[in-house]
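re: that complex we talked abt at group meeting.

here r the seqs, copy pasted straight from the sheet so there may be weird spacing, ignore it
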Amino acid sequence: MSVLEEPSNVEDVAKRLLEDERALSILTLVFQITLVKISESDLVATYRELGDRFKSVGVDVEDALEAILEHNLWKLRQVRSNFWGYALMYLDFILNYPDNAYNYVVTLLSTMLLLLATYETIEPTKLRSIGEALSTLSEELESYTLTFMLMLEKPGVEEEVSATARTREELRRVFRLE
Amino acid sequence: MSSEYKRAVNVRRRFDKAVRSLDRDLRERVLNIVDELQKGTISGKPLKGPYREFKSVGIGKYRLIYSDKVHCVIDLYDIRHRETAYI
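got the structure back, here u go
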């Protein structure tokens, strides 16, 4: 069953793809080309175009697309400007949290498949189904984005507790809302 | 009248720094989110790997990162703006 026919089953398709070595070889090649060829503004323009396709049929996926774009922009920046830091962090993630790492790849690949499927249809019902699947997956992807961001930041004094509030009024003072 | 929280709220330095940079309306919204976390009417989405004990809650373009792992404590860890220029 294709992603376009049943967007909610996209993760099963992604898992099958991950077991196909030929498909993975091609995906690896595509990824390498992308790193050389795609600029941040290209990426933003593509997501804007995708957003417009959904908007044209009244489907709101702005939040989901933003979360997916953020993940991919951040990763592009890391690979280009902090390659070793990013690679070591990712290796640490794969070695120490293999289940999370596998689920991350499935989630990422699933979002890509759904975005590609978006270009294959103009039918509002199909775009709506794709949008729903994207929204669910984007929340999961955002959890990985935040995790990776935090993993790359070195712990320091900013980790210390600076205040403790036991009442709403105390917290208002901490937030300078008096 | 003082409204005592069921759980103490710890504020990390990075959270404190981030919250100070927000405008008053957003700080009010963050306060309301903390109230909802206290009441248990909302719960964040868990992060992964070494940060699996942390959760995130969206506040518009911001994400509040916290932990409720320790009994009777809500640990406010960070607030982050989504890093994208989309739309």
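couple things i noticed - Residues 4 and 116 of chain A are 9 Å apart (CA to CA). The first strand of chain A starts at residue 161 and ends at 167.
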